[in-house]
Specification:
The protein has a 3-stranded antiparallel sheet with strand order 1-3-2. With 227 residues, it is mainly alpha-helical. It is globular and about 50 Å long. 63% of the residues lie in helices and 4% in strands.
Length: 227
Protein backbone atom coordinates (compact mmCIF):
# COMPACT_ATOMS: atom_id res chain seq x y z
CA UNK A 1 0.00 0.00 0.00
CA UNK A 2 2.96 2.27 -0.59
CA UNK A 3 3.27 4.56 -3.60
CA UNK A 4 4.05 2.73 -6.82
CA UNK A 5 7.68 1.82 -7.49
CA UNK A 6 8.44 1.75 -11.25
CA UNK A 7 11.01 -1.01 -10.67
CA UNK A 8 8.58 -3.22 -8.76
CA UNK A 9 6.76 -6.13 -10.43
CA UNK A 10 3.11 -5.57 -11.35
CA UNK A 11 0.75 -6.08 -8.40
CA UNK A 12 -1.07 -9.34 -7.93
CA UNK A 13 -4.87 -9.42 -8.01
CA UNK A 14 -4.93 -9.49 -4.21
CA UNK A 15 -2.58 -6.49 -3.99
CA UNK A 16 -4.68 -4.59 -6.53
CA UNK A 17 -7.85 -5.14 -4.50
CA UNK A 18 -6.04 -4.19 -1.27
CA UNK A 19 -4.60 -1.01 -2.73
CA UNK A 20 -7.89 0.12 -4.25
CA UNK A 21 -9.94 -0.51 -1.10
CA UNK A 22 -7.27 1.14 1.04
CA UNK A 23 -7.39 4.25 -1.17
CA UNK A 24 -11.21 4.23 -1.24
CA UNK A 25 -11.25 4.24 2.58
CA UNK A 26 -8.47 6.81 2.86
CA UNK A 27 -10.22 9.17 0.44
CA UNK A 28 -13.65 8.48 2.02
CA UNK A 29 -15.25 6.97 -1.07
CA UNK A 30 -16.24 4.15 1.28
CA UNK A 31 -18.11 5.66 4.22
CA UNK A 32 -17.69 4.49 7.82
CA UNK A 33 -19.93 1.50 8.50
CA UNK A 34 -20.07 0.33 4.86
CA UNK A 35 -20.42 -3.44 4.52
CA UNK A 36 -17.84 -5.03 2.20
CA UNK A 37 -19.62 -7.98 0.60
CA UNK A 38 -17.42 -10.56 -1.09
CA UNK A 39 -19.80 -11.22 -3.98
CA UNK A 40 -20.15 -7.53 -4.86
CA UNK A 41 -16.40 -6.91 -4.61
CA UNK A 42 -15.63 -9.97 -6.75
CA UNK A 43 -17.90 -8.58 -9.47
CA UNK A 44 -16.43 -5.09 -9.17
CA UNK A 45 -12.82 -6.27 -9.51
CA UNK A 46 -13.56 -9.23 -11.83
CA UNK A 47 -11.73 -11.65 -9.55
CA UNK A 48 -12.67 -14.72 -7.53
CA UNK A 49 -14.13 -14.53 -4.05
CA UNK A 50 -10.96 -16.27 -2.85
CA UNK A 51 -8.92 -13.26 -3.99
CA UNK A 52 -11.38 -10.92 -2.27
CA UNK A 53 -11.22 -12.95 0.92
CA UNK A 54 -7.41 -12.81 0.90
CA UNK A 55 -7.47 -9.05 0.37
CA UNK A 56 -9.99 -8.48 3.17
CA UNK A 57 -7.96 -10.57 5.61
CA UNK A 58 -4.83 -8.60 4.74
CA UNK A 59 -6.65 -5.29 5.27
CA UNK A 60 -8.03 -6.56 8.57
CA UNK A 61 -4.53 -7.55 9.72
CA UNK A 62 -3.42 -3.98 8.96
CA UNK A 63 -6.45 -2.70 10.95
CA UNK A 64 -7.82 -0.90 7.89
CA UNK A 65 -11.14 -2.78 8.07
CA UNK A 66 -12.87 -4.96 10.63
CA UNK A 67 -13.99 -8.57 10.20
CA UNK A 68 -16.99 -9.77 12.18
CA UNK A 69 -17.85 -13.42 12.72
CA UNK A 70 -20.91 -14.30 10.61
CA UNK A 71 -21.27 -10.67 9.49
CA UNK A 72 -18.31 -10.28 7.16
CA UNK A 73 -16.12 -7.24 6.54
CA UNK A 74 -16.98 -3.63 7.28
CA UNK A 75 -15.38 -0.20 7.06
CA UNK A 76 -14.93 0.73 10.73
CA UNK A 77 -16.75 3.63 12.36
CA UNK A 78 -14.28 4.82 15.02
CA UNK A 79 -15.43 6.75 18.07
CA UNK A 80 -13.97 9.90 19.62
CA UNK A 81 -12.41 7.65 22.24
CA UNK A 82 -10.64 5.86 19.39
CA UNK A 83 -9.36 9.24 18.18
CA UNK A 84 -7.41 9.74 21.41
CA UNK A 85 -5.66 6.38 20.91
CA UNK A 86 -4.98 7.01 17.22
CA UNK A 87 -3.43 10.42 17.79
CA UNK A 88 -1.43 9.18 20.76
CA UNK A 89 0.09 6.59 18.44
CA UNK A 90 0.67 9.09 15.65
CA UNK A 91 2.44 11.48 18.01
CA UNK A 92 4.77 8.71 19.19
CA UNK A 93 5.63 7.63 15.63
CA UNK A 94 5.61 10.93 13.74
CA UNK A 95 7.32 13.09 16.34
CA UNK A 96 10.16 10.56 16.37
CA UNK A 97 10.26 10.63 12.57
CA UNK A 98 10.49 14.42 12.63
CA UNK A 99 13.19 14.33 15.32
CA UNK A 100 15.32 11.92 13.27
CA UNK A 101 14.90 13.88 10.03
CA UNK A 102 15.60 17.31 11.56
CA UNK A 103 18.72 18.82 10.01
CA UNK A 104 19.17 15.79 7.74
CA UNK A 105 16.61 16.54 5.03
CA UNK A 106 18.21 16.26 1.60
CA UNK A 107 17.51 18.89 -1.09
CA UNK A 108 15.62 16.40 -3.29
CA UNK A 109 13.52 15.33 -0.29
CA UNK A 110 12.59 18.95 0.43
CA UNK A 111 11.58 19.39 -3.21
CA UNK A 112 9.38 16.27 -2.97
CA UNK A 113 7.66 17.52 0.19
CA UNK A 114 7.12 21.01 -1.23
CA UNK A 115 5.57 19.49 -4.37
CA UNK A 116 3.12 17.52 -2.22
CA UNK A 117 2.17 20.63 -0.25
CA UNK A 118 1.61 22.62 -3.45
CA UNK A 119 -0.50 19.82 -4.95
CA UNK A 120 -2.54 19.58 -1.75
CA UNK A 121 -3.12 23.35 -1.77
CA UNK A 122 -4.33 23.22 -5.38
CA UNK A 123 -6.71 20.34 -4.59
CA UNK A 124 -8.03 22.16 -1.53
CA UNK A 125 -8.57 25.38 -3.49
CA UNK A 126 -10.39 23.45 -6.23
CA UNK A 127 -12.67 21.79 -3.69
CA UNK A 128 -11.29 18.33 -4.54
CA UNK A 129 -11.61 16.89 -1.05
CA UNK A 130 -10.60 13.34 -1.99
CA UNK A 131 -7.38 14.47 -3.66
CA UNK A 132 -6.53 16.77 -0.74
CA UNK A 133 -6.99 13.91 1.73
CA UNK A 134 -4.83 11.58 -0.34
CA UNK A 135 -2.08 14.17 -0.75
CA UNK A 136 -2.10 15.00 2.96
CA UNK A 137 -1.61 11.31 3.72
CA UNK A 138 1.11 11.14 1.07
CA UNK A 139 2.96 13.99 2.82
CA UNK A 140 2.99 12.19 6.17
CA UNK A 141 3.83 8.86 4.52
CA UNK A 142 6.71 10.45 2.59
CA UNK A 143 8.25 11.67 5.85
CA UNK A 144 8.09 8.13 7.25
CA UNK A 145 9.72 6.74 4.12
CA UNK A 146 12.48 9.36 4.24
CA UNK A 147 13.23 8.31 7.81
CA UNK A 148 14.27 4.90 6.45
CA UNK A 149 12.44 2.71 8.99
CA UNK A 150 9.91 0.47 7.20
CA UNK A 151 8.15 -0.31 10.48
CA UNK A 152 7.31 3.38 10.88
CA UNK A 153 5.82 3.31 7.37
CA UNK A 154 3.66 0.26 8.15
CA UNK A 155 2.47 1.74 11.44
CA UNK A 156 1.51 5.00 9.78
CA UNK A 157 -0.27 3.26 6.90
CA UNK A 158 -2.41 1.49 9.49
CA UNK A 159 -3.25 4.79 11.22
CA UNK A 160 -3.99 6.99 8.20
CA UNK A 161 -7.28 5.29 7.15
CA UNK A 162 -8.62 5.49 10.72
CA UNK A 163 -7.64 9.17 10.85
CA UNK A 164 -9.54 9.77 7.61
CA UNK A 165 -12.61 7.98 8.96
CA UNK A 166 -12.49 10.04 12.16
CA UNK A 167 -12.34 13.21 10.08
CA UNK A 168 -15.27 12.02 7.95
CA UNK A 169 -17.35 11.43 11.07
CA UNK A 170 -16.40 14.31 13.34
CA UNK A 171 -14.69 17.12 11.43
CA UNK A 172 -16.92 20.08 10.44
CA UNK A 173 -17.92 20.20 6.78
CA UNK A 174 -15.52 22.23 4.67
CA UNK A 175 -12.55 21.83 7.02
CA UNK A 176 -9.18 21.17 5.38
CA UNK A 177 -7.77 17.64 5.52
CA UNK A 178 -4.66 19.05 7.19
CA UNK A 179 -3.71 22.54 8.27
CA UNK A 180 -1.68 23.39 5.18
CA UNK A 181 0.47 26.08 6.73
CA UNK A 182 1.61 23.50 9.28
CA UNK A 183 3.04 21.37 6.47
CA UNK A 184 4.99 24.40 5.23
CA UNK A 185 6.23 25.10 8.75
CA UNK A 186 7.16 21.44 9.20
CA UNK A 187 9.35 21.53 6.10
CA UNK A 188 11.05 24.64 7.39
CA UNK A 189 11.60 23.09 10.84
CA UNK A 190 13.02 19.91 9.30
CA UNK A 191 15.76 22.00 7.73
CA UNK A 192 17.21 22.71 11.17
CA UNK A 193 18.73 20.30 13.73
CA UNK A 194 17.22 20.09 17.17
CA UNK A 195 13.77 19.44 18.57
CA UNK A 196 11.87 22.11 16.64
CA UNK A 197 10.58 19.72 13.97
CA UNK A 198 9.24 17.26 16.55
CA UNK A 199 7.54 20.13 18.39
CA UNK A 200 5.98 21.35 15.14
CA UNK A 201 4.76 17.84 14.30
CA UNK A 202 3.16 17.52 17.74
CA UNK A 203 1.42 20.88 17.30
CA UNK A 204 0.18 19.85 13.84
CA UNK A 205 -1.27 16.54 15.03
CA UNK A 206 -2.90 18.21 18.04
CA UNK A 207 -4.63 20.70 15.73
CA UNK A 208 -6.03 17.87 13.61
CA UNK A 209 -7.24 16.02 16.72
CA UNK A 210 -8.84 19.15 18.14
CA UNK A 211 -10.69 19.74 14.87
CA UNK A 212 -12.63 16.53 15.54
CA UNK A 213 -14.15 17.91 18.71
CA UNK A 214 -17.32 20.02 18.57
CA UNK A 215 -16.89 23.62 19.64
CA UNK A 216 -18.02 24.26 23.22
CA UNK A 217 -21.35 26.08 23.41
CA UNK A 218 -20.36 28.99 25.66
CA UNK A 219 -23.95 30.34 25.75
CA UNK A 220 -25.61 27.09 26.83
CA UNK A 221 -25.78 28.04 30.52
CA UNK A 222 -27.60 31.28 29.68
CA UNK A 223 -30.34 29.78 27.51
CA UNK A 224 -33.78 29.16 28.93
CA UNK A 225 -34.60 25.45 29.02
CA UNK A 226 -36.89 24.24 26.29
CA UNK A 227 -40.32 22.97 27.24
Amino acid sequence: MSPDDPAAPPPTATERVCDTLYTDILERRLAPGTRLREEELAARFAVSRTVIRQALHRLAQDQVITLHHNRGAQVPAPTRADAAHVFDARRVVECEIARRLAGRLQPEQRVQLEALVEAEARADAAGDRSAAIRLSGDFHRALAQMCGNPVFVRLLEGLLPTTSLLMALYQPAGASACVLHRHVELISALGRPGTGAATEMRRHLQEIEQSLRPARDVFKAYRAPTT
